[in-house]
Amino acid sequence: MRFHLKNLSRGLTTVVLCLGACAAQAQALPTPEQVKYVKQCAPASATTAELDKLSRKAAKETQSYFGAVEVPLSVKLVAHRLIQASPLLSSRWDSVNALDLRGYEHRQIHAQLNGVSGVMVSSALWKASPALDPHEQAAVLAHELAHLEAQDLQLWGCFAQSRLYPDLMSFADAMDFVVTGNDPIVRQFLHELEGVTDKRARQLLESAGFDPSALDRVLSRPDLLSAEPSFTHPGSRERIQAAKPQS
Fold first, then answer.
1. What global pTM score does this model have?
2. What is the tens place of the pLDDT at every residue in 184-194?
């Protein structure tokens, strides 16, 4: 998720919109100074480098623990089709193998960012039973590509660090402290961000000729539907409900 100033609008809008939502669910409010910090921190090359290092380390540890596997060409082709539907992403990755797409062995469907320019997926994406069809595989990939498109990794890292004393703590230490402490405002922000990302993922699916409702089908699979909300993600039921038109 490399940041360029022209691509900040969606993410920064999410920060601003989150302020009101977070206010009702946490005692400490994000201050104007914190919002200002995020705007200055997110585009910085040092931020990108630090987050890329942290994320790739986590991805490498995941592959080391569960076992690295090769992502099938069929899955790479699905990812490439989605990339071609995004002017921003297609300008960055113009071939099937350009995206850093890696896999690891696991029976549960899962995907995560691998640094600021890659994605890592579990082998369940092509091995699960019942099997995911290409539209459902695309839905999993579209969500991660939407994160990359909006540069969300930098955005949430800077927002998390702004909750502490960024001048006194390293970026890595601040991130670890905020995450392990389950900071309520950062948690709310991340949940809001996932909703925005799901919406963009559906748009990418439709633009690429995939079924946008495939994301709901994936979230409705028994193992995902029963998953509890985490620090970074709302529960699957909440994500499905958020996509329904409001009466």
1. 0.86
2. 888 998 999 99
